[in-house]
Specification:
The protein has eight helices and eight strands; from the N terminus they run βαβαβαββαβαβαβαα. It is α/β, with parallel strands linked by helices.
C-alpha cells in the first residue's frame, strides 16, 4: 500500500497533480487541509471524477465525507468516535510501536512515524527507536495495517524492505519534486521491486 498525503496549504495547481497521481496508479490520497474553508474544499473535490472518489481519504473536513460520497476518514483516537463513523473505513496516526500495538480492529490502518527525518517539515527528526523495533519484529498487532511515515523518498526504500510494515506514506518525497506523478511512479516501482525480492 502506498499513500500520498496532500500539502496542508491550498495550492492552485494541486488538483491537476492529484488527477495525474490517480492516472499514475495512486489509490489512496489523504486530503489534509485543516485551514481550508469547506466551500473551497468542496469546489476542489467536485472537480474530481466520481470514479476517483474511492481513492480519497478525508484527513480533515471529515464532516463532509457523506455529502461527497467518500467512504474513508482519518481520525484522532481521542474521544468517542465509534458510532458517528461506524460505516466508514478508518485510519489514524501513532507515534510509537506501543501505541500501534494497542489499536483494535476498528482501525483499517495506522500511520507510524517519523521513521526518517521529515522532508516537508525541517527540524522534525526521525525516531530511531521505531526503525529498530520494526527491524527486529516487535510488532504484535496484525489486524491493523502498519503504514510507515516520515521522510520517505527513493533513497529510503531499500531500508524499508527489512521492516515489518504493510505500506508507506509519502508527502515531502512527492510534493518537493518538480513532477509529483513521476516521483510517485519511481517510488512505487522501487518499493514493489524491493517487496518482490523479500517475498520471492
Amino acid at each position: 500500500m502506498i499513500i500520498v498525503i496532500s500539502e496542508e496549504q491550498y495550492v492552485p495547481s494541486e488538483l491537476k497533480h492529484w488527477l495525474a497521481l490517480f492516472d499514475a496508479g495512486l489509490e489512496n490520497l489523504h486530503l489534509r487541509k485543516y485551514g481550508l474553508p469547506d466551500q473551497l474544499l468542496l469546489s476542489l473535490l467536485n472537480q474530481i471524477p466520481t470514479v476517483f472518489r474511492k481513492y480519497l481519504v478525508l484527513h480533515s473536513h471529515q464532516h463532509l465525507a457523506a455529502e461527497l460520497g467518500i467512504e474513508r476518514v482519518h481520525l484522532k483516537r481521542e474521544g468517542s468516535i465509534e458510532m458517528e463513523y461506524q460505516t466508514f473505513r478508518k485510519s489514524c496516526s501513532t507515534h510509537s510501536l506501543e501505541e500501534f500495538n494497542q489499536l483494535t480492529s476498528f482501525w483499517e490502518y495506522a500511520f507510524l512515524g517519523p521513521l526518517f527525518s521529515s522532508i516537508s517539515k525541517p527540524g522534525y527528526q526521525a525516531n530511531p527507536d521505531l526503525a529498530n523495533a520494526l527491524a527486529i519484529t516487535q510488532r504484535q498487532n496484525y489486524h491493523t495495517k502498519l503504514i510507515a511515515l516520515g521522510g520517505i523518498s527513493k533513497k529510503q526504500i531499500t531500508k524499508l524492505s527489512i521492516l515489518d510494515i504493510d505500506g508507506i506514506a509519502l508527502k515531502g518525497g512527492i510534493w518537493k519534486s518538480e513532477n509529483p506523478a513521476q516521483s510517485f511512479k519511481e517510488i512505487q516501482k522501487q518499493y514493489l521491486n524491493e517487496k518482490g525480492k523479500i517475498n520471492s
